[in-house]
Amino acid sequence: KKGEQRMVPFIDKQKCTGCGVCIEFCPVDAIIKKDGVAFISIECVECGACIAECAEGAILPEDNEEFILAT
């Protein structure tokens, strides 16, 4: 819905090593590597699989205003 706020996980770019484990475990292919670190796209379904698999603790379950839906 337009203007709906989402609880998409947040990537801590300081902790992310770009290993790609989160990309491998995302069931909807919503994570890409961008500039050497993980980036979660709007396709995220908020399942939490990436949070559970990140050995670096770089993916946090946070409210990220960047992901307010625009369409």
Could you explain the architecture of this structure?
This protein is of the alpha+beta class and 71 residues long. The chain is 14% helix and 17% strand. It has two helices and four strands. The protein has a two-stranded antiparallel ribbon with strand order 1-4. A two-stranded antiparallel sheet has the order 2-3. A hairpin with a 2-residue loop joins strand 2 and strand 3. The radius of gyration is 12 Å and the shape is globular.
How would you briefly describe this protein structure?
The chain is α+β, with helices and mostly antiparallel strands and 71 residues long. Helices cover 14% and strands 17% of the residues.
Question: Which features does this protein show?
Answer:
71 residues; alpha+beta; two-stranded antiparallel sheet; 2 helices; 4 strands; globular
Secondary-structure map with pairings?
Elements: E1 10-11, H1 21-25, E2 31-34, E3 37-40, H2 49-53, E4 59-60
Antiparallel strand pairs: 1-4, 2-3
Tell me the radius of gyration: 12 Å
Q: How many individual β-strands?
A: 4
Q: What integer is the average pLDDT?
A: 83
> Helical content, roughly?
10-25%
What is the 3D form?
globular
Query: Helix segment count?
Result: 2
Q: Biggest β-sheet, characterized?
A: 2 strands, antiparallel
Ranges where pLDDT stays below 50 over 5 or more residues in a row are 64-71
